[in-house]
Amino acid sequence: MSLLDKMKETAQKGVDKTKEAVSAGQDKMEAHKLEKQIADLKEELGGVVYAQRSGSPPDNADAEIERLVGEIKNIETELATADAGDDAGDASDAPAASE
After folding, report:
1. Is the dihedral angle over the CA atoms 21, 22, 28, 31 positive or is it negative?
2. Using an 8 Å Cβ cutoff, are 48 and 24 in contact?
């Protein structure tokens, strides 16, 4: 293998590592965004429940609670699916154990 080929190979490895790092960063940002959505929905849910328990519920309180709980569950499922995909990718990147 010539020196030029070795340099190209090394440069490609660097590019591949950079792409992996960017992808990991994007995944973390997406997970943080989903967690923020869950927190916002829970805050909204708390407001509806508080209004309901304090005697001034909105007319559609039960439907609103169901909607919010459903959205939270959907986002939690999406987040768990994304985490499971990350874990599977991590396992494939791990070096094989030697015997």
Report:
1. negative
2. no
